[in-house]
Design a protein that fits this description.
Elements (H helix, E strand, L loop, with lengths): L1 H18 L2 H47 L2 H14 L15 H16 L7 H19 L4 H8 L4 H21 L24
């Protein structure tokens, strides 16, 4: 602003020197000063708007910090972070799975699909199906929280639960292959399926 005003006043003074008309020069100087005032007001409004924007940004930053560093948010953030930082299960031959819950869900669903090919009257199907459905429900209700799923499944680390689920899927496929629900080709010997607690007294 000062450079613009100096330039404007210099023009007016030049006119005074050249034309010798002091009244005209005074009017020109008044016009320049009025323009100056308008520019100052315009800049003042811009500064006020910038200040208001800065206050709004600071308030948003404050609210963001409150959210990020609240205990609930920290708990939600550190859970996935802790899982991502996991480097070992501490069990030989059992590697850390990068995304275990979706894989666990997929394995349970595959097991249920295999079990569907076994007759409903099969005691094996009834028992395993009920167990797998319970585990699937736990994983789905965990909402991505691996620690919560581990606690409710009660099978150790999530990688161990995935290992167990994979074994169950393999066994279910074998049971279908073996057709274990069909009657035995050879009749069992008398007393073969009787146990000490149920065997008739002699």
């Amino acid at each position: 602003m000062s450079s613009s005003r100096d330039w404007s006043e210099g023009v007016v003074h030049a006119r005074v020197r050249n034309a010798g008309n002091k009244d005209a020069a005074k009017n020109d100087l008044d016009v320049v000063r009025d323009v100056d005032k308008m520019e100052w007001r315009r800049e003042g409004k811009a500064l006020n708007a910038a200040a208001a924007m800065a206050v709004e940004v600071n308030e948003d930053n404050f609210r963001l910090r409150q959210y990020l560093f609240s205990p609930l948010t920290m708990f939600r953030v550190t859970r996935p972070l802790a899982n991502a930082l996991k480097r070992t299960t501490g069990i030989t031959g059992l590697a850390v799975h990068p995304n275990p819950l979706p894989q666990l869900t997929k394995t349970y669903e595959q097991t249920l699909s295999v079990l569907a090919s076994i007759p409903q009257s099969s005691v094996y199907r009834q028992g395993v199906e009920a167990l797998v459905l319970r585990k699937l429900n736990i994983v789905q209700n965990a909402n991505g929280d691996i620690a919560a799923a581990e606690v409710r499944l009660d099978e150790g680390q999530i990688e161990e639960a995935l290992d167990i689920a994979s074994d169950e899927l393999s066994l279910a496929a074998k049971m279908v292959e073996w057709k274990a629900w069909e009657p035995l080709e050879e009749k069992p010997e008398a007393g073969q399926w009787e146990y000490a607690a149920t065997a008739p007294s002699s």
